[in-house]
Write a structure and sequence with these properties.
9 helices, mainly alpha, single chain
């Protein structure tokens, strides 16, 4: 069982590495255009916080070095992404991102680690508290692309929903859920099971708006459909 858990953990590390770097093409686009366009910084800020805490959890809990190694890598990658976002975001979005980084990645992270290290002296309780924080933040990380899903439904376009990121979240949630079952770590298992389900939903929506609706639009265009809307569109704030 230990060998199987180790093997699954290594596979999870590989998938997680791909997940962490999957937004790379998005940032290549941002750098080329020197603009963050409609992309949101929240997923990267949440992932940075989550990776930091999971690294701390992996270091604190005996036998969890596979959790620490991959999340340590994730911390470095997410720092690069957040810095690029701060550089290329327009002033209002840059200010919002900087405030979020200060609150989430400095305030919450520093406060959480300080409490766990200097106030909670019992080791088992410390691990439980860190695990609970990691689980909550992992759910937030998996749910953070919901803003992009909302935009996709509103615009009926998949332009701002990176497929590779959604696919990696799907795989990552699945493999780490399996690993958590093998090692009986429910702090790791519950959020990744939720992430697996959310990743599945993201992929389903992507397929709907990328292929099904686009093919219907194409067919209608070829057929010469020019139906007038029942209600005239109006601007919204």
């Amino acid at each position: 069982m230990e060998r199987l858990a180790f093997l699954v953990g290594v596979i999870g590390n590989i998938i997680s590495v791909f997940m962490f770097v999957s937004p790379g093409m998005t940032f290549v686009r941002i750098v080329k255009k020197k603009s963050t366009e409609e992309f949101e910084s929240i997923p990267y800020i949440c992932t940075l916080l989550s990776s930091c805490l999971w690294t701390y959890y992996g270091i604190t809990k005996p036998g969890s070095f596979l959790v620490a190694t991959v999340n340590g890598f994730g911390v470095l990658v997410q720092i690069i992404f957040v810095v690029l976002f701060l550089v290329f975001a327009p002033p209002p979005k840059r200010a919002k991102t900087a405030v979020l980084v200060g609150i989430v990645n400095i305030g919450l992270l520093g406060g959480g680690i300080t409490v766990c290290k200097y106030i909670v002296l019992d080791e088992e309780l410390r691990i439980d508290i860190i695990g609970l924080m990691c689980s909550a933040l992992n759910i937030v990380m998996y749910a953070s692309p919901l803003s992009a899903m909302k935009r996709m439904v509103r615009t009926k376009s998949v332009e701002y929903m990176p497929f590779l990121l959604s696919f990696c979240l799907f795989l990552n949630g699945g493999i780490w859920t399996f690993y958590a079952v093998l090692v009986q770590d429910w702090f790791l298992g519950v959020p990744n099971a939720i992430g697996f389900m959310l990743g599945t939903l993201q992929l389903i929506l992507y397929l709907i708006y990328k292929y099904l609706l686009s093919s219907k639009t194409t067919d209608c265009t070829h057929a010469g459909c020019h139906n007038e809307p029942l209600l005239q569109p109006h601007s919204t704030c």
